[in-house]
Structure to design on (760 residues):
């Protein structure tokens, strides 16, 4: 493969960002929309060609003896700090990258198409498309990064573009607050990531160039991933608080991923990010932003495996987050927030799968590829059905003009397309055969059970909760009791225009068939094909749990009945706590406002105002005082000047004369 | 050599004194020329007695005289304009350029 296609894949969205961003104000909405959609359609086709060539061409560069290779299509030196610390910009093609190219461009294309209908009447339509292109560009740059530093650059770009899009309705104070929150929280996490990168590259770059790691750049993924043992050896002897330095470095890098992927306790930005336009939420939650953390762990997987403590950390964080988010999702009223928490829960599911991909060493091999493959598989299927659910939610909001399910109910008669596609999405996320979520979730659970039965059981419970809250929302929106407002007012809710319905149908079809893709043939941790086989006991367990949860949801919510409020009133405190997201925002508010702002920042502000500003003010005051005193000497009388000049000259001559003597 | 420098010093001192005391701008200009000429005289004298083989001091003086002539023309022009504006040539009547 030449370098033309890969460069085009990065260049098209960036060019669209510039064209729409600079020239957008001069364009009509229609032209901007068509330009954005066409550019993204082309981009998707190019990405499919690249992925298809990589997976199916059989080229020896891509697949050698049945093992898929990691190929750097190009890798240009950009910044050379030292001989070993060299930052390159390049394009790394390997199974997960090819898979992500397909996912990102597909979802981005769907979102572009959908936005044409959804954002039709919004001011700033052209700006919106420009930001979407920037978002696509940053995410594509992130997945093709050849080194951790390039990834970090695009990682920050993803943060910036999410900030711009979440705050798209910048006249709403809540949107502004949400975008600031998302940016600050993820930036805070990225600080840790930067520390991790610096620690890692410091130790790697201080090994001799003729050593086992060779003279390659200390940031390069291929070098780090192909010699994880030597990376560990380069940090040997250096410990910090009982852990090896490499463990700490990897945990710090993962904290960056926790920020982007909204793991606890850095999840607080994600529910608020719902303030952005709904298609943006689909893009953030399905294909970009939040999967960046999962992708980071997958990208660095061999190095994570060499320090299993970091994988344990990932597993624990993921398991707690998955359960927490699932519980909170059961008590939300805003449908976008339910979906937001389900995203947090599902992303955490992938994290646990990756964390469980480590096994005790058997004949020197540390990892079983199952969890890795399953995590990536779920990333793929989840992207499709979560985009479907968010776009469906967008249709509902478009029809009802409210985010809350209390304003909905009984919509199945009015919006048949939205109803069917939404149901398919719910079945997929609940893990019902034959929808895509079943297959990926089954593989993940099998991997967790093979690591330890506890993780398997815990995550099966989370899967049951997922099925329950998804169907709770489904029944509350489409069944329950028809909202009397539809009949009374002349405005009946109806299905969305074709630009919005078409992506729903396409994504629903993908969600129906994606499970049958032999994913293990394409994406595995070491490039060798893995044959997926359904584990009967695991599949039966998860299916039973999911069906039971759906049955429970049906009993409680299919028709209007007093059962839900009775259960709610059993433990009203619990419901309120879950509804308020277990007070995490309040805790953050308390720590930042009461403690950091009040105590630490007040001291800093005093120092700034009195010491730093005071010094500057004093300098200015003294200068001014002096100039007021001496300004009378500038009398305007030329003869006075001459006398002063003459006196000065005589004095200088006298001084010179004395010095010479 | 000293007998040549004494008139130069006297000329210069007279120029400074005149520049600082007179009120008429034409008188100021004359004092200025006096100072300039004393400097020219110094050039010639030092060239003649210290470096008899070379001609630089002489040539430099010729240049200085030519430039002084041009400068005097400009000064006269400025004085005429001031006279038109304020009606006299008193140096104390143009004190506006101050703080």
């Amino acid at each position: 493969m030449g370098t033309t296609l890969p460069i085009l894949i990065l260049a098209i969205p960036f060019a669209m960002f510039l064209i729409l961003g600079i020239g957008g104000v001069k364009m009509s909405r229609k032209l901007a929309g068509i330009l954005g959609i066409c550019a993204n359609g082309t981009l998707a086709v190019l990405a499919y060609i690249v992925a298809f060539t990589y997976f199916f061409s059989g080229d020896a560069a891509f697949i050698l003896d049945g093992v898929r290779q990691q190929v750097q299509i190009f890798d240009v030196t950009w910044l050379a700090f030292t001989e070993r610390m060299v930052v390159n910009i390049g394009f790394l093609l390997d199974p997960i990258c090819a898979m992500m190219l397909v996912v990102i461009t597909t979802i981005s294309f769907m979102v572009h198409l959908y936005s044409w209908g959804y954002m039709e009447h919004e001011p700033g339509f052209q700006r919106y498309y420009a930001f979407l292109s920037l978002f696509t560009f940053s995410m594509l740059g992130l997945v093709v990064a050849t080194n951790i530093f390039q990834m970090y650059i695009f990682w920050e770009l993803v943060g910036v573009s999410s900030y711009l899009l979440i705050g798209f309705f910048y006249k709403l104070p809540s949107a502004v607050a949400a975008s600031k929150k998302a940016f600050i929280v993820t930036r805070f996490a990225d600080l840790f990531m930067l520390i991790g990168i610096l620690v890692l590259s410091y130790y790697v770059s201080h090994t001799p160039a003729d050593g086992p790691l060779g003279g390659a750049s200390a940031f390069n993924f291929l070098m780090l991933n192909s010699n994880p043992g030597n990376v560990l050896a380069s940090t040997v002897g250096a410990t910090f608080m009982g852990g090896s330095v490499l463990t700490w470095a990897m945990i710090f890098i993962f904290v960056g991923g926790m920020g982007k992927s909204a793991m606890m306790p850095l999840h607080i930005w994600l529910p608020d990010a719902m303030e952005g336009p709904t298609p943006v939420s689909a893009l953030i939650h399905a294909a970009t932003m939040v999967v960046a953390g999962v992708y980071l762990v997958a990208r660095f997987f061999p190095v994570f495996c060499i320090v299993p403590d970091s994988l344990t950390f990932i597993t624990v964080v993921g398991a707690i987050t998955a359960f927490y988010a699932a519980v909170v999702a059961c008590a939300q009223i805003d449908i976008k927030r339910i979906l937001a928490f389900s995203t947090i829960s599902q992303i955490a599911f992938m994290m646990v799968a990756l964390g469980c991909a480590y096994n005790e060493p058997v004949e020197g091999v540390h990892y079983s590829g199952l969890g890795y493959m399953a995590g990536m598989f779920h990333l793929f299927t989840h992207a499709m059905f979560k985009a479907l659910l968010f776009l469906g939610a967008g249709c509902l909001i478009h029809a009802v003009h409210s985010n809350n399910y209390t304003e909905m109910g009984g919509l199945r008669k009015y919006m048949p397309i939205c109803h069917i596609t939404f149901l398919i999405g719910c079945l997929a996320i609940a893990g019902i055969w034959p929808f895509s979520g079943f297959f990926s979730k089954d593989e993940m659970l099998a991997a967790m059970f093979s690591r330890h039965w506890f993780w398997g059981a815990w995550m099966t419970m989370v899967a049951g909760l997922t099925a329950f809250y998804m169907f709770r929302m489904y029944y509350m929106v489409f069944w329950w009791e028809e909202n009397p407002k539809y009949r009374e007012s002349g405005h009946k809710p109806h299905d969305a225009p074709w630009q919005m319905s078409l992506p729903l149908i396409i994504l629903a079809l993908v969600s129906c068939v994606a499970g049958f893709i032999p994913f293990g043939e394409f994406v595995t941790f070491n490039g060798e094909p893995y044959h997926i086989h359904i584990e009967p006991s695991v599949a039966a367990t998860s299916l039973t749990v999911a069906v039971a949860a759906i049955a429970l949801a049906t009993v409680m919510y299919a028709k209007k009945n007093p059962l839900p409020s009775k259960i709610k009133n059993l433990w009203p405190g619990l419901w309120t706590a879950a509804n308020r997201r277990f007070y995490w925002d309040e805790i953050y508010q308390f720590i930042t406002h009461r403690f950091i702002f009040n105590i630490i920042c007040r001291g800093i502000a005093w120092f700034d105002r009195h010491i730093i500003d005071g010094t500057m003010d004093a300098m200015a005051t003294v200068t001014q005082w002096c100039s007021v005193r001496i300004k009378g000497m500038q009398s305007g009388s030329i003869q006075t000047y001459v006398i002063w000049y003459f006196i000065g000259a005589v004095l200088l001559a006298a001084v010179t004369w004395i010095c010479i003597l | 050599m000293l007998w040549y420098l004494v008139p130069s010093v006297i000329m210069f001192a007279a120029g400074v004194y005149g520049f600082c005391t007179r009120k008429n701008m034409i008188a100021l200009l004359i004092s200025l020329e006096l100072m300039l000429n004393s400097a020219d005289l110094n050039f010639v004298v030092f060239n003649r007695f210290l470096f008899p083989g070379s001609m630089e001091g002489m040539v430099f003086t010729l240049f200085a005289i030519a430039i002084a002539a041009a400068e005097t023309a400009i000064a006269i022009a400025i004085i005429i304009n001031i006279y038109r504006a304020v009606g006299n040539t008193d140096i104390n009547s143009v004190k506006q350029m101050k703080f």
